[in-house]
Each structure stands twice: as structure tokens, then as C-alpha cells.
Amino acid sequence: MVYRLKEMLDSIKKMFSVEGDEPVSSTGKPDISREKSAELYEKSKTYFPGGVNSPVRAFKSVYGTPLFIAKGDGCQIWDADGNQFIDFCCSWGPLILGHNHPKVKEKVIEVMQNGMSFGAPTALENELAELLLKNNKYIKKLRFVSSGTEAVMSAIRLARGFTGRDKILKFEGCYHGHSDSLLVKAGSGLVTFGETSSAGVPKSFAAETIVIGLDDKEALQKAFEEFKDQIAAVIIEPVPANNGLLLQSKEYLQYLREICSQNGTLLIFDEVISGFRVGFEGAAGYYDIQPDIITYGKIIGGGLPVGCYGASAEIMGSVSPEGPVYQAGTLSGNPVAMAAGIAQLTELLRSGFYRDLNAKTEEFAESIQRFASAKSYKFKVFSIGSIFWFAFTDQDSISNADQIDPSSMEKFKVMHRELLNRGIYLGPSGYEVGFISSAHTKVDLEKAKRAIFESLDIVFRK
To answer: Whose C-alpha in 66, 279, 304, 455 is 20 to 30 A from the C-alpha of 26?
Structure first.
């Protein structure tokens, strides 16, 4: 009898919730249908670990099952159930022109007529490289790879090979992909060797990575004193945007540049997110600071699998076959990705592109902040370029991961659900930033703002 009662309760719960989440909230709109997405998710779990091919897609930090996306056009996406959303994820940033941009699509189709992969040089590689290098004074030579993770992994190897040193220094709150040397987190203490943040990463790898907090000059000085002449590179997201938007001051980044120069250490700017989002020259141009190596991600390929790392001709001269630092890739410089990149970057170079996009983002962020402030909500909107982040805090600035209150993610969880029910799609984690594309119109942004206002009212009514 007890078993039957439990079975009945479980059945009722399943009728009104997804994946064991709370029932539909009486304070918000009814949950959108996820029937087909839920079916696809159940099937995908038989194929992939957790049913996904990248962890955050599993929606573990928000309500419901993952949405399986069927189509994207402009700033809109549609899921398998036919629900339509204004998309502020933009494939995690690269779709700065929006989905399915006609010029990108046209160029890709044109190139695909001649083949999709050769594993050999093409003129398209030269064309995209020229677009990049002629309009970015911070790098003189580059190497195409197939992802941001690969770009960062290669940059670390290059720094070690060029300097003849082994240790690298990274910052808690910055994410640089899933290569072994960088899947580390801070231990206890001002300056620590990293502790592995993933099973399968040997402790010996983490022992070569020093981890300190962001925006902490004292820790930086101490690290260079403690490991004098041992640090090959310091790697930082100059606009940290993988653990909230932890904006750093120009003064701190300039200090980082100076201390690296004084110690013969290379400074790596990981611009996989900030690159081409805060301007064509990325954060290096925005802050006017010269790093030694810069990495970029899928934005240089219109969102297709591509990345690159670049530096001075001297440093890049260490890369094989010119130098002793080995790096290779069959799909490096893939013609389809190069074609998409040529089309996208050409659009970004149009006069006024960044002025208009950044102004649009600034107005969007300020409008939401005015609403929240007028209602005395503990809520801040941080933004730079066309990147924004919603934080449930009353702090005027957050520059360090420790300043984020983990309990605030429960409020984001409610907000995310309410926004989905109103046709607004954000990345499924409160630590993730949002992006605006040139495809977002004034009408789209006004609709999104109304949905955000309604959702905030519900969050703070609870």
C-alpha cells in the first residue's frame, strides 16, 4: 500500500513538473511545452554522458529539461516543440551577426560547392588572416586551430617553449577551456598551486599551475617573488566572462603587463569571449594593452568550429615547422570555417558597426537597471561592449569570483524559467553572460525588457 501511494504521488509530480522540478508556479505564466525536447533528452541519455555533449547544456542549474534547438534565424531560435525565443546566448557569443546571417550563409554555400575539407592550404586561410592582421595591431602572425580550447592549449605550449620555463599562472574565476593544465582551481592561501578540478587530470599537471584571485596585486607580487624566474606565462581573460562578468580595471591589467615584462614572463590574453565583442581588436584594443599572445575562438569563423592564437613574429617563429614548438591539426584552416569568418569579419569592419551595437547594449542594460533600482531590487546589470550579465547583488562592482553569492543562483533559476515562458532565452546558468547581436532590433529588445521586468517582479515577490 505504501509503495502504491508513492507511485501515485510520483505520477502526479511527473504530470506537473519536468525532471523532478517543482510544479508550475502559480505566480508566473504556465510552463512552455517541452514534450518533444524531453523525449529527445531521454533518448540522448542513452547515447551521451548526461545526455549532452557539453555539460552546461544539461540545464542542471535551472528548471526543466534542456531545450533541443531546431532552428535559428536573426535573433530568434525555435526549439523542437515549436517554441520561439529571442536568443541572448548567441551560441555562447560567436553569433555577433545573429543566426543564419545571409552574407555568412551565402559565402559558406559558395565555398562548399568546391569541397569541405582538404587538410591542405587554401587561399581562404590567407584571406581571413589578412583581414585579422591588417585590422589588429596587437598580433603580427597567427595560427588557425579548431577551437578556443585548442588555441589556449597551443598558446600555453608556445609560452613554455619560447621562455624555457614550465610554470603558468592563472586566476580563479577565469575559464580557459578543458585542457589539463588549466582545469585547476585555487587551493587555500594567498598563492597556491592549483588543485585539479576534474578527475583524470594528474596532480603533476596541476603542480605546474599557480592560481591566485583576480584583482589582487599583493597575491600577484607574492607569486612572482615565490616563483622567481619560473613562470613562463600569466594567462587571463582580460574581460573575465565565464564566471559572471568580473570586470577588471585598466590599472590592474596594466600592472599585470608591467610585472610580466619585469620578470621575463609572457602575458596571454584569452579573448575567446571578449575578442571582437568589445571591438575588432578585442580587450587588447579596448584597454590599449599589448599582451604577448592572444587567443580567439569561434567568432572568427562565424560560429563554426575554429580558433586561433597570435603574437609577434618573433614569438610565432617558435611554432613548427619554423620552430621547435609542435602544433598541428587536420581541420586547421578548414575552408568552410574560413569562408564564414571572412563574411562575418567583413561585416564587423563596416563603419559604425561597433558604435551601434555597443550603444544598443548600453541602452538595454541601463533600462533594466533603472527598472530594478526604481523598485529597490537587489539586482545589477553589468555590461561591456555587447556583453551583459545579470547579478542578484547590491554591489556596484564585482571583480573577483569570491564576491558572487552562490545562493543568488536560486533567484536566477526562477528568472530563467519565467523568461523562457515569455519567449526569452538566456544561457542556462546564472554564472553565464548574455550577448546582443546586430540582429536584435529595437522591437526585440523592448519585448525582452518587458519580459525581464515581469520576471524580476516574480523573483522578488517570492
So the answer is: 66
Does the annotation mark 396 as catalytic? no
Cα atoms in the 13 Å half-sphere on the side-chain side of 288: 0
Cα(269)–Cα(253) distance, integer angstroms: 10
| pLDDT confidence of residue 18 | 39
Q: pTM of the entire structure? A: 0.91
Query: Mean per-residue pLDDT for 245-264?
Result: 98
CATH code for 102-348? 3.40.640.10
Residue identified by cell 535573433 is: 75
One of 270, 286, 380, 411 is an active-site residue; which one?
270
Q: In CATH, what number does 19-99+352-461 get?
A: 3.90.1150.10
According to DSSP, residue 264 is labeled T
Q: Cell digits for 399?
A: 571583480
Instruction: Write out the three cell numbers for 359.
Output: 550603444
Same fold? 19-99+352-461, 102-348: no
| Catalytic choice (107, 167, 170, 298) | 298
Annotation says 216 is catalytic: no
Is residue 222 within a helix (H) or strand (E), and if so which, with residue range?
helix 217-226
Q: Domain residue spans in the chain? A: 19-99+352-461, 102-348
Q: Which of 265, 281, 270, 297 is nearest to 155 (CA)?
A: 270
Judge whether 390 and 448 are in contact, CB under 8 Å.
no
| C-alpha count within 13 angstroms, C-beta hemisphere, residue 42 | 7
Label residue 407 exposed, middle or buried (CB < 10 Å: 0-12, 13-18, 19+): exposed
Q: Which helix (H) or strand (E) holds 317?
A: none
Closest CA to 436 of 121, 75, 9: 75
Residue 31 is among the residues annotated as catalytic for this protein: no
301 close to 338: Cβ distance less than 8 angstroms: yes
> Cα–Cα distance between 300 and 277 in angstroms, integer?
11
Catalytic one of 41, 175, 286, 296: 175
- pLDDT tens string 35-51: 999 999 999 999 999 99
Residue 118 CB partners (closer than 8 Å, separation 6+) = 335
pLDDT in tens, 294-304: 999 999 999 99
Beta-ladder partners of 295: 270, 309
How far apart CA 227 and CA 209 sit, in angstroms, is: 11
